[in-house]
Every structure is written in structure tokens, then in C-alpha cells.
Amino acid sequence: MFGVKATKAQAGQEMTTQEYVNGKWKVVTARFRSYSDDYASMRDHAQLLAHGTTWNQRQYAQVIAARDYKTAASALQSSGYATDPGYAQKIIQVVEKYDLDNYDAN
Q1: Cα–Cα distance for residue pair 84/15, rounded to 1 Å
Q2: Annotated catalytic sites, by residue?
């Protein structure tokens, strides 16, 4: 569901995707994690954000620490979660279009 890349040791499959590299969009083949069901995908994604990567356990710490969706979206982009330079703005636009920030209210 989230397009999380897989290592050779993880269940996954190779797929083509676009990545923004050196100022250009490029089609690449990458290995993505695969799951038995949606719940497993969501759980693994949450674990990735909460515990980071094997090479940087604090990679997404600023995302977790964010107190609003704009800060969280910017932190996702700056943490290297996606190569798209417009990633944060795209998330913000979806949140605002569908008033998803209403779910943030306590």
C-alpha cells in the first residue's frame, strides 16, 4: 500500500517506478515489500516510521515529533522518504482538499 522498498531478505517483488534523480525523473526497477494483507502493510509502514531504517533508527524521528500535518509532510520529504521534490506539497494538498486535518482534533 505504501511502496516501501524491500531488501533481498524481505518478501517483495520488483516493479518499475519513477524516481527523481539529479534533477530529472527517471524510470527505475526497484524491489518493493509485499504483504499477505492490508493490515500487515499498514503495521510494517507504521513500524518503519516509528523505528526508522536499519541504517538510521532515527530517520523519521522528526515525522513522529511533528505536531501538525504540514510539519509532518515536510519532515517526510526532508528525511528521504520519497525522491519527489513536490512530495510534501502533494500530501498537504490532499489533506486540505479532503479536510483530513479534522481527524487531528482531540
Answers
A1: 17
A2: 19, 44
